Amino acid sequence: MRATAALFLTLYLLQAMVAQVNSAIAPIHVWLFVGGLFVAYPALVMPFGQGFAASVLGGLLCDALAPVAFGTHAALFACAHAVVYNARERLQRDETVVTVSAALLVNLALFLALSTIRIQQAHGSAGAWPRMLSDLIWSEAVVALIAPWFFALQRRTLEMARAVDWRTT
């Protein structure tokens, strides 16, 4: 429970920062999505139950601010968490490049899923895809830049909360 709460605090901080950045860049018609960062670290490092709870709570946090049905992000984050968790034994989880790559792939999948849902809600306005492609490129660049810092923040937060014994994970 302590680990889930510590991770949720970092996700809350990330959501607040991304909301501020999105507000600042709204005049240039760019929207950033960093959902991969909500899922990657909990799925790669934490035991399933604790990481799953953190990912779903992060999804609910994103749902609170998004123009989709409440629970959409939470369901997508839960699915992404399960996929990454099941693949983690085949990955070099202690390598920064691998964790950042996992975050980028999860971010891509979540972005495409949410974009598809949002276009269906807009009754198939296919003219939005070029704008979404631009948003995806910017989002992936931001995820690649901040992922190492955010993963270090999550690890340090877990250490400060004494929520995880790294010798046993």
How does this model look, in words?
- The chain is an all-alpha fold and 169 residues long.
- 74% of the residues lie in helices and 0% in strands.
- It has six helices and no strands.
- The protein has helices spanning 2-25, 35-45, 48-63, 72-87, 96-121, 129-160.
- α3 runs antiparallel to α4 (72-87), α4 runs antiparallel to α5 and α5 packs across α6 (129-160).
Rounded radius of gyration (Å): 16 Å
The unreliable regions are none
* Helix proportion: over 70%
If you average the pLDDT, what whole number results?
A: 90
Alpha-carbon distance between the two ends? 16 Å
Report a brief summary of the structure.
With 169 residues, this protein is an all-alpha fold. It has helices spanning 2-25, 35-45, 48-63, 72-87, 96-121, 129-160. The chain is globular and about 50 Å long.
Task: Name the features.
single chain; 169 residues; 6 helices; mainly alpha
Secondary structure elements and their pairing?
Blueprint: H1 2-25, H2 35-45, H3 48-63, H4 72-87, H5 96-121, H6 129-160
Helix pairs in contact: 1-3, 1-6, 2-3, 2-4, 2-5, 3-4, 4-5, 5-6
